[in-house]
Amino acid sequence: MTESPKPLGMSDFFALEAGEYLERLDGMLAKGDNPSADEIVRLARALRGSALMANQHAIARTAAGLEALARAVREGRRAWDPQTQQIALRGVDDLKIFVRRAGTWTDADTAKAEALAQQLEQLAGRPSAQIRAVEALGLDAGARAFVAREGAAIAGTLERAAQALRADPLGHDPLQHVMRALQPLRGLAALNDLPPLPDLLEGIERAIGELSRSGLEPPASVGELFQVAGSAIARAAREVAERGRPDPEGADFRQFAGLLVKFMESEPDAVSIGSLYYSDSGPHIVSRGVPAARPSTLGKLELVSHGEHLRQAADSLERAPSATQRELRAHTLGTTFRALANAGGGVLADRVAQFAMAGRDAVASGIAVNSPAAFAAELRRAGDVLARSGTGDEEALATELDALTAALRTIQPGAAPAPARRPAPAPKPAAPAAAAPVVPASAPPQRADQAIPETPDLVGSWAAYQRLAVGGIGTASLAELIAGAAAVERVPAPAPGSRLPAPAPPSAESSAVDVRTLLYRGERALRRAEELRATAKQVSGDALRELVEEVCDLVALAFEPGP
Questions:
Q1: 241: number of Cβ within 10 Å
Q2: Which residue of 360, 400, 543, 555 sits 20 to 30 Å from the alpha carbon of 211, by its own alpha carbon?
Q3: What mean pLDDT is predicted for residues 15-29?
């Protein structure tokens, strides 16, 4: 009885694949005069990708040097002369030796491979601006080869799935094969820097999810959807391998986006349950069913989660680099709005449903695509409102959502985002009574925005400044400034935790301090930054951005010595 042959391992596959690439390179280089630089680049890139997959990083480094030399010849930065030919042939011969020694690799081999790679790269010179821009994203030749290989595999799987769905629309096995084929490329860290590949993969996953959940026969266009998706991915992966970036407005991607939008918006026809039975004497429908009860209300945790999702969706919509990607991401929101519009009751949940219906109308009418900045601004504000639902008053939050829903319905195509609406700050405990400021009779009438209480924070300080401005501050005087610099000004001590001195009239009992001690410098700036860090955990939106700016200023002041 003969023993069965031992199966090939990863190193054996690498030796076979790399040996084939090197033999083809040797044959092309030995011809002499004008070998195809594009073919040399392609083979060297494939060799590097194969070495990376086999965990042979030193060989991949040398293959990258050979690729750089071939690219320099292709771009005209180095002439193809006998010297360049001899260098390339010697590099291929050394690579053959490295591949044969892959199973017994030593540190000395690593040093030789590194030295050869540096020599080849030095002869190649500085790469082009396009290649430098691609490599700055972390996409070296191995990564581009990986994208090309996995993209071709996904395209082939999608083509087979399209044919299987045309033959058996209810078969789900081809869909599972597609999901498994997507996994390697979805795990690439630099995928988000290669639009429209992320949107392509996400769109395919959404289509598969809809087909798996419905259980109904899909529309006839689903086969065409997967076939066009395969063509789009194959083209995008090929462009990554050749140029480092795919075209986000490619014709295949636009066609896929249009088919996906139609597929996601198509609703299955409702049929009578009685029509599903055989045409016999029965029994068929015995008793009328009872519809499932809707949840009484959305929990606070669910509302906060929806708020975070809306904010992320707004950022994603604004960052879309092309109109086609923006349309695809906007229609993704349509699914989210559909779920929110069917949520349970409750004061705040009802307002969320109304906002969701307004959002669905904006997506359906094209407002979300034509006015992305204004639409995203309202989404983000709605997300901020829902994020506060864990601790805020539901009635007040529902009122804010009413205003946002009205603003969303009034957005016009091409409209700019409306300025942020900030809620009025909550009043704080009253400070000890102080003498009311004297306002001259000639002062203009008090405006509505001056009714803000003078609380011991930045808002209260601004309100105090406006009150003093109404009373008349006087014209700027250089003499006053010089006189103030000569003497140390003494003012009442500030209220605890405030950034500016509290506006209170001086008295004999009030303690006077040096004005320079009120400035944040050194250790005081660090302590204030720690206080703001604790406050930042309880706020979001515009308030959080203001705190971040203030912390950045305090960090700069912390490097200055204290008084």
A1: 24
A2: 360
A3: 88
